[in-house]
Amino acid sequence: GVLSASFVTVYSKLKARHKDEEAEHVAAAVFGILSLACAVLVVLGVWLTPVLIDLIAPGFKADKRELTIQIVRITFPGTGLLVMSAWCLGVLNSHGRFLLSYTAPVAMNLTMIIALIVMGRHDTEERLAIDLGWAFVLGSVLQFLVQVPRVMELLPGIRPRFDFASEHVRAVMRNFGPIFL
Length: 181
What we know:
Largest sheet: none
Radius of gyration: 19 Å
Number of strands: 0
Strand content: under 5%
Structural class: mainly alpha
Helix content: over 70%
Distance between the termini: 12 Å
């Protein structure tokens, strides 16, 4: 939601003013910055999971703590992919393409449901929780990849940029903070 509110506002205004090249530049820069930020946060999250678990769930000890750490480490990359999926949603919505962006999460949900049905009969609860974590990651990949072809049609030739200098990119960044808080 934060990404949509900060990015879509700027991107849509540029599209409405027929400043397509600037809009594509903003989309590419936001994609690049988000990709880098997500990658760094995912790596840090996976690495710092034991500390995070101690802060969030201080009562978890022994096997319960270890299982929680394992599941959180598995799911961190999926969460990063959901952020990238939200970028796709923002692009699609700005172009008036709503159906795909709002049905894409079905890919993740179906992946998780199928994993529960297939693995649920044979796994222990602990193993099923781990399998469900992997299904979440796979579902997040699918949710992102389902949207990418349509985004590429709308933004042909887009390449990630790391441009913090553009006034429109700075506007997205300025909008992000207050909305996030």
